């Protein structure tokens, strides 16, 4: 073998070793901690999501011109993977500092984005209005997280420091009946929200045995036991059959200001039988 080939071979070997070391370092967990990875499925047939009739408010119709907006209550893939599920561990954990960064809910196109989020007790919930029209942000809480503010101008931001733990804090708009969002509020950092493929990941979990709980706005709660071992990744699946009873914090119980009930009743057109799917 020539000297040039030897040098090239040595260089390739060193690069491979460096990449292997980088991979190991990024995947390693601190001592005594593990990872939970999972997926949430809907095994039954998904219901159709209602079309939001933005024409009830001409300004909402203008900002959504050319779009068909759905009430995204049940968002699944063709395989039944379920999005917008709040997943959290139940148990006692060592104290972990509350993040200084706020959790942001935006009002964009006359809907809340994201529809489902998670936050810590003591963390700031920030609600922004990105629409050039009046919105009203009204929370429904059982743990002291109530507020009710108007945001008439685009760019307005309201911040609220979350005071108490609750399964979900519900946000609604007293002007636009279809607007709804949820925030799971917990005292620890071991939670996640499922994405479009129904997947979630919870990192840096102390080793131990726990109950993992999932909450969905239409199907409520499911839970199961999970064991976390140091330096390992635990995988699991959670499933809804589709026959579960809807929780009380659903879109069906949103209140409507007097004088608007007649017009807002027609704001949602049900699409019964049409499967839910992501755009």
Briefly summarize what is shown.
This protein has helices at residues 3-27, 58-63, 261-264, and strands spanning 33-42, 51-52, 86-90, 103-108, 111-113, 116-120, 124-129, 135-140, 148-151, 157-161, 166-172, 180-186, 191-193, 199-206, 208-216, 220-228, 233-240, 268-269. The chain is mainly beta and 279 residues long.
Q: Overview of this structure, please?
A:
With 279 residues, this protein is mainly beta. Helices cover 13% and strands 38% of the residues. The chain is built from 3 helices and 18 strands. It has helices at 3-27, 58-63, 261-264; strands spanning 33-42, 51-52, 86-90, 103-108, 111-113, 116-120, 124-129, 135-140, 148-151, 157-161, 166-172, 180-186, 191-193, 199-206, 208-216, 220-228, 233-240, 268-269. The strands form 5 sheets. The chain has a 5-stranded mixed sheet with strand order 6-12-11-8-9, with no helix packed on it. The protein has a 4-stranded antiparallel sheet with strand order 13-3-15-16, with no helix packed on it. A 4-stranded mixed sheet has the order 5-4-7-10, with no helix packed on it. Strand 8 and strand 9 (148-151) form a beta hairpin. It is globular, with a radius of gyration of 23 Å. The model is unreliable at 3-26, 250-266 and 270-279 (pLDDT under 50).
């Amino acid at each position: 073998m020539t000297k040039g080939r030897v040098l090239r071979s040595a260089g390739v070997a060193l690069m491979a070793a460096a990449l292997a070391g980088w991979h190991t370092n990024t995947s390693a967990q601190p001592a005594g901690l593990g990872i939970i990875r999972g997926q949430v499925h809907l095994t039954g047939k998904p219901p159709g999501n209602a079309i939001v009739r933005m024409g009830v408010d001409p300004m909402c119709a203008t900002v959504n011109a050319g779009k068909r907006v759905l009430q995204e209550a049940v968002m699944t893939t063709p395989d039944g993977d379920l999005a917008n599920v709040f997943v959290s561990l139940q148990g006692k954990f060592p104290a972990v500092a509350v993040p200084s960064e706020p959790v942001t809910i935006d009002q964009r196109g006359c809907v809340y984005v994201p529809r489902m989020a998670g936050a810590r007790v003591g963390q700031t919930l920030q609600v922004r209005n990105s629409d050039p029209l009046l919105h009203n942000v009204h929370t429904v809480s059982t743990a002291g997280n109530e507020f009710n503010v108007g945001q008439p101008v685009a760019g307005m931001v309201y911040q609220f420091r979350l005071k108490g733990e609750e399964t979900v804090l519900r946000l609604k708009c007293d002007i636009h009946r279809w607007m709804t969002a949820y925030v799971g509020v917990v005292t620890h950092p071991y939670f996640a929200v499922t994405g479009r493929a129904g997947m979630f990941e919870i990192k840096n979990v102390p080793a131990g045995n726990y109950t993992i709980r999932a909450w969905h706005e239409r199907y409520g709660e499911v839970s199961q036991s999970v064991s976390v071992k140091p330096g390992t990744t635990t995988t699991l699946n959670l499933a809804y059959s589709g026959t579960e009873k809807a929780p009380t914090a659903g879109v069906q119980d949103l209140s409507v200001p007097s004088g608007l009930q007649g017009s807002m009743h027609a704001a949602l057109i049900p699409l019964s039988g049409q499967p839910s799917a992501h755009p």
